[in-house]
Write a structure and sequence with these properties.
The chain has helices at about 20-25, 55-75, 90-100, 115-120, 120-130; strands at about 5-10, 35-40, 80-85, 105-110, 130-135. By secondary structure, it is an alpha/beta fold.
Length: about 140
């Protein structure tokens, strides 16, 4: 599973991500160009009177801090660490194309039943990109 030149690591910094980081270390050889991406899906407010933009800003800032920490751990330069806003699968597809990615490494919760029928980000990424996708089973518990 080596010889991937450009790897995109899609991270949920508010979830369990350490197993994804560890698998990235195992898969990426020293010549691989790793990029890290977190896609923040904007909060949806039914009534804008109750919108809490401070909370959303705080969540994005927390994500940036975790992405920075992971970037240091994986030796990824700051210009290849991304925190973007949008629909996760769509943004991951765009980054794959833009960066000419060979492999996406991301977490999956391994949902089943109704949740599987509704689809997941990992499933959408797998079926919407031309590169390989390595889905790492993760728990719902956040990493420390």
């Amino acid at each position: 599973m080596s010889n991937y030149a450009r790897i995109l690591v899609a991270i949920d910094p508010l979830g369990e991500y350490q197993s994804i980081v560890e698998r990235t270390k195992a898969v990426a050889d020293s010549n691989a160009k790793i990029s890290i991406l977190h896609v923040h899906e904007p909060f949806v407010y039914i009534d804008m009177r109750y919108a809490d933009t401070d909370a959303e800003t705080e969540v994005v800032e927390q994500a940036r801090q975790v992405i920075e920490k992971i970037g240091v751990e994986l030796n990824v330069p700051a210009e290849r660490r991304y925190v973007e806003q949008g629909k996760p699968a769509k943004v991951i597809h765009q980054k794959c194309e833009e960066l000419e990615i060979d492999l996406v490494i991301m977490g999956t919760h391994g949902r089943h039943g109704v949740q599987l029928l509704l689809g997941s980000t990992a499933n959408a990424v797998l079926h919407g990109t031309q590169c390989d996708v390595l889905a790492i089973r993760v728990s719902d518990a956040p990493s420390n």
